[in-house]
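Table S7 (text form). Paired inputs.
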Amino acid sequence: MNFGGNGNATIRCKYCSACLTVIPGERAIQCAQCNCVTRIRRADRIPVPRPAHVPAAFQRARGKKRAVLIGITYAGMRRGCGELRGPINDVKCMRNLLCQRFGFPSECIIMLTDDQRDPFRLPTKENIRMAMHWLVQGCSYGDSLVFHFSGLGAQVADDDGDEADGYDEAICPLDAFQRGPILDDEINEAIVRPLVHGVRLHAVVDACYSATVLDLHYLCHMSRNGFWQWEDESPPSGAWKGTSGGHAVLISGYSEGKSNMAMMPDAYASVGAMTHSFIRALECEPRGVTYGRLLTSMRAIMKNRGGGYDLQGPIGAPIHTVANFSGVQVRDDSEPNLSSSEMFDIYRKPFVL
């Protein structure tokens, strides 16, 4: 790392050798020339100054049920690619679901979308970080927390030995091309480890490379014999990525393209229909549906390319006012996945927010 006369630090892009300015607090940086992501070594990271005050957008009511919902279309931001069509609708649908089916107070939900005029409601890296901090700050027994992200995902070469496949997963904020993605290490540290006994976190992430984006220890997926089964995804390095006594669950989309795309340093791909299948399944299944039945319903909806289920009832009507599910695009290899900070019987445990 080199330090310039103005105090800024620079490093070379790992892929094209372009000179990159290191931003305080960042663990990775994306090259403006080749769009590839370069990790910043722990020893080279610059401490980030804490903000002097918390913006009003993050001084929301703190009920026992609260949520952070993020949707990014990247309009005008993706070089050589069009914007994503669904993320903002995903956020609106999730808000309706949480408020009308699960009783979340609207004032306890923070929405970050890139169609906002308020700069503190844009899904920038700093705003997402503040929203994650707001979500878990002061959490206590009985709290139900929801984190939802719909946008682009990425993989970045792992540098600390805590990934079996050698790659960290990440979500891409609005300013990812300037400040880099948010790595799973940081997401785990921000919203998983602070969870104390009696606190539940459900994360719904609709992005490629998101199957383990919370770095939870256990992954549940469909086996070849047609049953959901757990796999131990604990870090090979032995690093602890668990909670402080609470329970974290991630429901995410997954495609077999993950392993084939892993060698692409700038492996970005468009979102699928995971959010839509999640909402459809909850609307069509009775209250108290088990996790196993929910995953099976989501999988059937995905395999049917988003069709076959009509959204009716109290949730379906408002959702139809903000989204058109007939245009959902689903990859042939799309699968829902569930990961958790602890294993449990998914065929008996009811899904409760």
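Next pair, protein 2 of 2.
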Amino acid sequence: MALSESSRQSLLPSYLYSSPSSQGLDLQKFLQRNPSFTSSPSPSPSNGVPKAFIVPAPSEPGKIEMYSPAFYAACTFGGILSCGLTHTAVTPLDLVKCNMQIDPAKYKSISSGFGVLLKEQGLRGFFKGWVPTLLGYSAQGACKFGFYEFFKKYYSDIAGPEYAAKYKTLIYLAGSASAEVIADVALCPMEAVKVRVQTQPGFARGLSDGLPKFVRSEGVLGLYKGIVPLWGRQIPYTMMKFASFETIVEMLYKHAIPTPKDQCSKPFQLGVSFAGGYVAGVFCAVVSHPADNLVSFLNNAKGASVGDAVKKLGLWGLFTRGLPLRIVMIGTLTGAQWGIYDAFKVFVGLPTTGGVAPAAAAAPAQELAKV
């Protein structure tokens, strides 16, 4: 009986295992030296002992088993790096974008917006609010990517191999939406403080004084005042981000790249991840932009409602104000996120994302390989 490759530990003595370079253990010689092991008849037709019986070694040290707790932990940490670092890096763009949404009369364009910030706050002003950005989006990235991998596998198992392959896009959409609901709960408090710090001059220098001041002003529940608009922005964004990325990468490997994914080099696969992520990011920006305008407006104005935002911005402004800058920002951001996330997965020995069927669809082949 062969031991499963997924087992990391075994009750069998270590000397029964074969290493990748060994030729196997001859059990006949072993049993001849230990007669007690041959007291019962052998089930083989000749009542003898097989000449050689190899027990596969456990997984190699350092190799992470797919869909194990270590796998989800690695995806979670990759999400922290992916979202935390990228959102912090584009803080200047985010700062200009938020101010264009709140005060379009003062921040009329991207170039003039940077000019106004430079004149009023200096170079340091471009990274105002970077601490709540780093903490908030690190927490969001941990939940977004970690839970996406979990829900994608979970929903694939529920659907079964046939339907998981047939309706894989629905599984990507459901898995990403489920993950983002949780991720936004982690993000919302830091997002509220970030927007207030970035768009209200003199409100606070950063997180250390901004968070207590915000809580004193609007209470702890005020930190979650923008949760519904945040869901409205982030859930469609994330659904588009993951489903379109998976689809784009699959199409690239199927139609544009002559070499199968598993035969492509890791650097090449990471390039595909960045390209697929950038294109997906453009779609994300368009889909989620109206809700992004609402989040910025509500977190900036005390006691404001969605109706107030629509009345002031107008429907056209709600869909278009700050959109070109956000397309550039989100496209670059999303491409970089997928690049960093997959680079970390490769670093720890995991395959890159996309280009393969959902986990449940591949299960029969895996089971056959073990027979």
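The beta strands are 17-18, 55-56.
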